[in-house]
């Protein structure tokens, strides 16, 4: 279970960094290309959120999940997952959306995902990297929603920088999960 969670976070982190690099290096890409890349990224992130929503609840047999109070963020993760998948599919089906509409959708997605990450971070031991990811997502999402007409170049850079930083933090979180598992000795060997 722990390896699978770390693996999913790692994939999400790598995709975020790659997406961010493309958005920063080539901000002049057409909105269509950026929309298609974002659509795939949103779907992958949504699937990862849904996997977290439907994983087994923590309990005596599943203490490696790290929840401080024994609760599970199923609703928050499920909502963030559905929003990500729906948004990703919408962008892939209608890639010709204007930059302003795409920016608003990206902003909403970032805020919803950020709130979910913040909520999850309050339930985990050592969830500082996830809390930072959530806060960053909310700030980036609000900025993008408040100023969607700032221009495709500025939006591409804002999205790219957010994706790179959050991707790095996701990789840190994946490493922490892996490291946490190795520190538990017999429990890590069981997975």
Automatic annotation (TrEMBL):
- Which Pfam families does the record match to this protein? DUF308
Superkingdom, taxonomy of origin: Bacteria
InterPro entries xrefs? Acid_resist_chaperone_HdeD (IPR052712), DUF308_memb (IPR005325)
Does the record bear Cytoplasm in its keywords?
A: no
Task: Write out the entry's keywords from A to Z.
Answer: Membrane, Transmembrane, Transmembrane helix
Asked if the record carries the keyword Transmembrane helix, the reply is yes
Q: Which ranges does the record mark as transmembrane?
A: 7-26, 32-54, 100-120, 127-146, 152-177
What PANTHER family is this protein classified in?
Answer: PROTEIN HDED
Protein's recorded name: HdeD family acid-resistance protein
The organism's taxonomic lineage, starting at the top: Bacteria, Bacillati, Actinomycetota, Actinomycetes, Micromonosporales
């Amino acid at each position: 279970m722990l390896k699978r969670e770390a693996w999913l976070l790692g994939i999400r982190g790598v995709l975020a960094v790659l997406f961010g690099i493309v958005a920063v290096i080539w901000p002049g890409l057409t909105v269509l290309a950026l929309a298609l890349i974002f659509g795939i990224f949103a779907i992958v992130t949504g699937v990862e959120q849904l996997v977290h929503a439907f994983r087994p609840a923590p309990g005596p047999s599943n203490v490696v999940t790290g929840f401080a109070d024994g609760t599970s963020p199923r609703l928050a993760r499920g909502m963030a997952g559905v929003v990500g998948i729906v948004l990703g599919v919408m962008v892939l089906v209608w890639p010709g959306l204007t930059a302003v509409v795409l920016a608003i959708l990206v902003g909403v997605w970032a805020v919803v995902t950020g709130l979910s990450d913040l909520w999850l971070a309050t339930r985990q031991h050592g969830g500082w990297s996830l809390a930072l990811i959530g806060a960053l997502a909310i700030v980036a999402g609000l900025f993008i929603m408040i100023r969607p007409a700032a221009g495709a170049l500025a939006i591409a850079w804002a999205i790219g920088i957010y994706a790179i930083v959050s991707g790095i933090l996701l990789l840190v979180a994946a490493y922490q999960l892996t490291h946490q598992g190795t520190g538990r000795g017999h429990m890590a060997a069981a997975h």
